[in-house]
Amino acid sequence: MKPRAWNSTLPAPTKALHRTAELQRHAYMKAVNRERKAKLFERNFGEKSDFIRAQPCEVTGADPLGWKIEAAHMKARGMGGCHGSKLDLVPLVWFVHRAFDDMGEAAFLEHYGRTKQSVKDAAPRYEAAWQEYQREEAA
Fold this sequence. Notes:
Blueprint (H helix, E strand, L loop, with lengths): L33 H11 L3 H6 L15 E5 L15 E5 H9 L2 H8 L3 H5 L2 H16 L1
Antiparallel strand pairs: 1-2
């Protein structure tokens, strides 16, 4: 071991702890409950998500054939969103969806030239388009 300098503020090195036995897992780690996950997806998105993902991005206008479009809920989970409400879905490119969730109002406006509220206000238009699509499919 090297001698420490008289003005060193680092603590003196210590010996590493050595285990006498291998670590053992005490609890079985459950796999993903696929049935519950499928039920939640159906409740939160349903067939409408395929329709929404086929639309161009509301903010950038990006084509769904060239970009990964996501069906984004406009009501945050912490505010009661994502609990069976399929009415507030809007198509957003994946990176715009992340920015929508992570950026503040001013930063989003500066970066994309639209307010978050204007994107949220588009949800009823997509709901009306979905209803029209369902009527055409039924006919």
